[in-house]
Design goal:
- The chain has ten helices and nine strands.
- The protein is of the alpha/beta class.
- It has one domain.
- It has a seven-stranded mixed sheet, with helices on both faces. Strands 6-7 form a two-stranded antiparallel ribbon.
- Helix 1 packs parallel to helix 7, helix 3 crosses helix 4 and helix 9 packs across helix 10.
Length: 315
């Protein structure tokens, strides 16, 4: 449905206010110690859990769907509160990392599996970094850029160009190359170009895909999944490597780089895409299973497209 004039004014106002809020946060976080940021996220996250019924219910429904057979209601509620804490902490960490000296946060993140990345880049076909909203996911590129790796990421700017421009400026300052998802043709060409230059292309693939998704298992339920990493890998030969940053005691601690995700090719492009999508989704499931409180659980991950006659499995 096309935007009305009222919609355009509302989006402009939201973008203006969002940019003003972001600028204010940048100024405040310049003087706050990291411990205070963690405490702030805990207080705000707990408040949001109690006050925002809609999102509290969605998170607890999703957690119950996955862990209901092994956790009682009290454990689910405690886990949900930790989820809200981590949700609130992620944007604060991102801003903190971009405005402080690197050694205060980014260089303290240990990198495990760097040998897999170096070996993959030695093939000269680029690397697809499989991302997820686990932990401080926005710091994957920031950390690797400090090690000298060219890092590219697609950003869904939506209706907030001012906000994304400011964040993009910070990302570029750290050596990253963000570019918008739309127009799709342009982002597709840019993605192929960076892989041909033997660079890293970061793709987050853990949200429900409304159109063009492939139904694959995720925590025992069927989930419509974006096949982007599989499509780019099969088209270019670039290996897919899982890359996730996780926290310990509320602080970004480790960047895990996994082995390349591979399948035995069948020669059937459609089938190979489905197999590879299912396999990289399993890699995301494994990291979420290890750090369940650090994944948002807000996405309607198991709601399948109704046009295919499939029902919402979260209800």
């Amino acid at each position: 449905m096309p935007k009305t004039h009222v919609d355009e004014i509302r989006y402009w106002l939201a973008d203006f206010c969002g940019d003003l809020l972001l600028l204010s946060c940048i100024q405040v976080l310049r003087v706050l110690p990291q411990k205070t940021i963690v405490l702030t996220a805990r207080v705000v996250g707990t408040s949001a859990f109690h006050l925002i019924k809609k999102y509290r219910k969605r998170v607890m429904d999703n957690l119950s769907l996955v862990f209901g057979g092994e956790k009682d209601p009290e454990e689910i509620e405690k886990l949900a509160k930790d989820v809200f804490f981590n949700i609130m902490l992620t944007p604060l960490e991102m801003i903190y990392a971009y405005i402080h000296p690197f050694e205060k946060l980014l260089l303290k993140i240990e990198i495990h599996g760097k040998e897999y990345l170096d070996s993959a880049l030695a093939r000269k076909k680029g690397v697809i970094a499989l991302g997820s909203h686990v932990g401080p996911f926005t710091l994957v590129g920031a950390r690797l850029s400090l090690e000298g790796y060219p890092f590219n990421l697609m950003v869904n700017q939506g209706n907030f160009p001012k906000v994304w421009k400011r964040m993009g400026d910070h990302q570029r300052r750290l050596g990253q190359n963000p570019f918008p998802v739309k127009p799709v043709t342009s982002s597709f060409k840019k993605s192929l170009s960076c892989l041909r230059r033997n660079e890293i292309l970061y793709i987050i693939a853990d949200e429900r895909q409304r159109r063009g998704g492939i139904p694959v298992p995720f925590f025992g339920q069927t989930a419509s999944t974006a096949p982007g990493p599989a499509i780019f890998s099969l088209k270019t030969g670039a290996p897919i490597l899982p890359m996730f940053v996780v926290r310990e005691k509320g602080v970004p601690h480790t960047l895990f780089i996994g082995r390349p995700i591979e399948i035995e090719l069948t020669g059937d492009e459609k089938k190979d895409t489905e197999l590879l999508t299912a396999k990289f989704t399993k890699a995301i499931e494994d990291i979420v299973k290890q750090y369940p409180s650090q994944w948002p659980w807000l996405n309607r991950r198991w709601e399948l497209p109704r046009s295919k006659g499939l029902l919402d499995r979260t209800k």
